[in-house]
Amino acid sequence: MPMMRLTIGVCFMVLFMATRVYSFVGITWGRQQSQQLVPSMVVDLLLQNKIPALRLFTSASDIIQIFSGTNISISICLGNRVVNNLNRKDLAYTWINDRVNEPIKKGVKLVELSIGAEPFSNTFLKQATNYEVVNVIEIFRECLDEMDLGHVITTTAHGMDVLKVTKVPSESDFRDDIKGLMLQSLNFFNRTGTTFLLNLFPIQMIQEVLNYPIEFAFFDNKSKFKIQDGNFTYTNVVELMIDSIAWAVKKAGYPNMKIMIGQIGWPTDGYPHAHIKNAERFHKGLLKFLASNKGTPLRPGPIDAYLHSLSDENEFKTMFGAFQRHWGIYQADGNPKYKIDFSLQDRDEYPTQAKGIVTMPNRWCTFVGDKSDMDLVKKNYNFACEAADCTTMEEGPSCGKLTDESKISYAFNAYFQRKQQNEKACDFNGLGEITSTNPSVEECEFPVEILSFQDQVANNGMVKLRI
Ligand SMILES: *[C@@H]1O[C@H](CO)[C@@H](O)[C@H](O)[C@H]1NC(C)=O
Ligand SMILES: *[C@@H]1O[C@H](CO)[C@@H](O)[C@H](O)[C@H]1NC(C)=O
Ligand SMILES: *[C@@H]1O[C@H](CO)[C@@H](O)[C@H](O)[C@H]1NC(C)=O
Ligand SMILES: *[C@@H]1O[C@H](CO)[C@@H](O)[C@H](O)[C@H]1NC(C)=O
Fold it and tell me: Which domains does the chain have, with CATH numbers?
């Protein structure tokens, strides 16, 4: 018995030292989209690009099990709405058995359970009344330990709005209304040796909260903009954001608590400065920064991070803006949008594309151009945009400059593709027509639907088009 303890101790130390010296970079994947990448292709994509870890915004067993035998570290998420329904040990047991224990038995390297999605954010706290989340995390921790799943980490993610807005990081502290909850949760993290999980969205922070020049988001020192905080100089917003959290955590009594980035990225549409060139530039600088292992002024040393996100989610709620649907590094068809080197070697290359994705035929639905009854046109336009994704046409984004007529076509097509190119879905009271001529213009692409996972599974892997 003492021998075994020693072995575990040594293993732990090796692991501990390994994670202290180098940062690791994983990726996130959500599935709120009509065009879903097939999970087996995602596995292939991660392996080809040597991405070691995946943060999934689901706990669906059919998705998780596909990662069995891959040695990709998987983190799964228990959504805000479910948290309050699992506040009893018997309920937690059943959930863990189905969603954690079963996949692990089947060879999935499931390493983390994230309970609630930014439960203390101003918006979500009120909406989902997540005041119980820390109790639920404690219940899950107890159950996991009792079920011999002590190695599965229990955590929850935090957005920057857990802090009050301050001028410099050293002044930062948690919001008054959640101070008690934060102290309870930090105490739990400290007791269980859990890393503080932080979600960072620099593009929004700079423009909506801080009102700093956008150049401050990038790590390439092309601007002279700086923030001085005592002896610390901040040349970019990411370090400033991390240290703001680190100061608040320090003031709460945990100066050494490790901080990990649960989500960080740059959208390519739907917001000022959200486009492919900036996304490439942001990631290039960010990955160099992470690879340097130099850390931030207050927290020198490696920082682990998950890039957000693998693919766009065209059904994501746009509560904070259209950009929420455009975080993808990859397009729905499995092609990378821009150059990025996941291996942290700063190579100027596109990452490997996802192989074997099957798109539907090259067919689009467009507006016939009859404007004699504009009320009818508008009615159909609104109908299409309510059911499908029209966010690329909002102010600024890639399709914002389309003519009114093209905008109607774009909406009709979005709906038609959303309905798997069903011909009836291109009727629009006689205002729509199907065409094989690609109506895309310059940076505005009119998408073609891809075959979904479910379509392919339903056909035992045999691809059959539903047309
Ligand atoms: C599995 O991944 C870990 C890092 O996450 C690595 O240290 C280990 O060598 C990998 N094992 C195999 C068999 O590839
Ligand atoms: C955090 O945990 C460590 C190790 O268990 C303990 O020594 C320390 O007192 C804890 N800190 C606080 C503020 O509770
Ligand atoms: C930017 O400037 C800071 C401070 O002068 C320096 O530490 C950092 O290495 C520079 N980064 C790049 C990418 O040049
Ligand atoms: C700033 O640096 C000086 C000199 O190293 C040191 O004396 C001082 O305490 C530091 N101030 C703060 C706020 O850390």
Answer: 2-325 (3.20.20.80), 361-448 (no CATH)
